[in-house]
What does this fold into?
Amino acid sequence: MTSGKAVMPIGRWYAYAAALAAVALLLAVSAGCAPSPRGSGPEEPRAEKGVIDLTEWPWDEEGTVPLDGEWNFRWLERAQEATGDSSYRDTTLNMPGTWGATEPGDGKELDDIGYGIYRLTILHRPMNEMMAIRLPNISTSYELYIGGKLVHSRGHPDIDERLSIPHQVPATVHFSAPGDRTELKLVVANYDHRHGGIRTSIVMGTSEQIQRLQLRHAAQQLIIMGCLLMIGFYHLGLYILRRKETANVLFALLCLCVGLRTGLIGEGFIVRWLQGMSWETAIRLEYAAFVMAAWAGFGYFCKMYPIELKKVWFKAATGCGAVLILVAAVVPPLSFTSWLIVNQLYVLLFSGRALAGLVAAAHRKREGAVLALIGVAGLVVTIVNDILFYNGWSRSIDLLPFGLLFLIVMNSFIISRRFSLTYDRAEQLSAQLIEWNSSLENRIEERTEELRRSYVTLEEAKTELERIEQARTRLVSNISHDLRTPITLLRGYLEALRDDVISEPEQRDKTIRSMLSKVDGLNSLIQDLFDLSLLEARRLELTLENIPLSYWQERITEQYGLEMQSKGILFSCEIIGEAADTLVAVDVRQMDRVFANLLYNAIRYTPEGGEIALTLRTLPESGRVEILVADSGPGIEPADVPRVFDRYYRKNHSRSSGSGGGGLGLAISKEIVDLHGGRIDVRNSEGGGCVFRIELPVRL
It folds into this structure.
């Protein structure tokens, strides 16, 4: 056993190593989101008074360039109530920047709600290859014109607020630039969001460069979203397997909600996938997911450290979060996006409370508290970054998914450490139990094996006795049922002969022949009863042979072909497909009996000129052979179909065995097929008659 003093340094070393690994992973994943360093290359050009000069820009060496700077801007002044007229104001506006946070060139402030037109003249060398422009999310609808021609739009910007349709998804526009200048015109309208305008840079480059930029951003976002969703569903599965661990479902909700929000913002993969989703639905889901993620994350740490984070805090978070989600669901987007600060204060408040609780837990040396504190601290840093970014107070990127990924990495270290400690304890306990119970375990194992063998023997004997008793009972019942009538007839004939009621020699001979026929029928019936009892008790031993279907076809044709022809019945026996060499393990004598019952039954009910067809084929998907016996007789009454294979069941309009009409032929056939591991059923054919169907396993 390791002493307590020795455990602490190892635990601390593990925590520090895990923290360093997680930070390195976060930096590696998020590095691709930052702009590529320019090194010692030329300074990026900026637009001045609506013109940007890119004639000297080395596209091959430096790649893409942001079209930042001073654009010409035309702002629509809202109609005055007195006159009802609207007018435009021409000025300049720095890009990127939202309307309310960017001062135009004339010094007059802009409102975030309105309609504006951006214009930029790009001076460049004549380009032989296709060029492209990468457009970010623009609040909240726009139309892009290149050279006076509409080339792309998101939603529908309009002077009239009622006609404007919001839509926010990044886009890439490709165009040719054979001349020395390109005129851009960007019409933007916003009546639905708290911020109007363009928050991030519009980037220009060759088609290949822009495509690489787009793919890099998409890949980063897909990786983050995929990781979050995968880990979320993983923890949801853990909760389904162990319902007591409610912390797992809260952590799953945290990952899934942040994954949902990641898919709604940025590249907008969910909006692209669900093309019918409106901008209003997407923004409501984004805000609800933001609040839901904060609630789930706080609830997770409340469940993990209930002493430091009391239930009253979780109840407060639940109530506030429910109100915020309800507001996002029913209030117009312009209103609840303007109140974003309330959502951000909610997240900051409960994130700070979680940090305080984790600090207390780490001080009390709770298991995994140090790693959890590091993870939450990293997450809070990204939350603060996103609050500054979305309020327009800083130029950055959305880092919340990276912060959550950092927290997940730290949580994985916590889980792995717990598993490691649990395995160590389990191994120690297991070693002690092995030493204490080694001798007892051997004795229990021997006794258990003896009991198991005895139990199996008793079960087999019990099953066998039940079968024998059932067979005996049925045999007695069958004999009393089916022998009474013919014996009564024989007795009547004998009494008539004794009393000279039948005196004429010819009539006496006829009576004796009838009696002999009844005796033969009794012998056949007794044999059938005996065979059926053996079959039901599973006492009949089968002599199995591997028979190809081609042999079966020839055998049946030889046995029944001439007889069918003599009765005026058209008979066919065919193999469908390439199944002639397929082998079936059967007892030939018993299966001959099955075919005799079925075919003579068919002959009995098929009129002269009718047809009997027997087909054989394989069923590859089930590994079986299918045999169909179809006739053109009157068929079976639908009510009688389920009872055809019952013993003694006969009706004037139903089918019965062809082997003397004793009512046992089909019952015997069913038992024989079942004994071969197959099955038999019957149905009426659409064109008349009925079809008996047998399935037998193929010999592998």
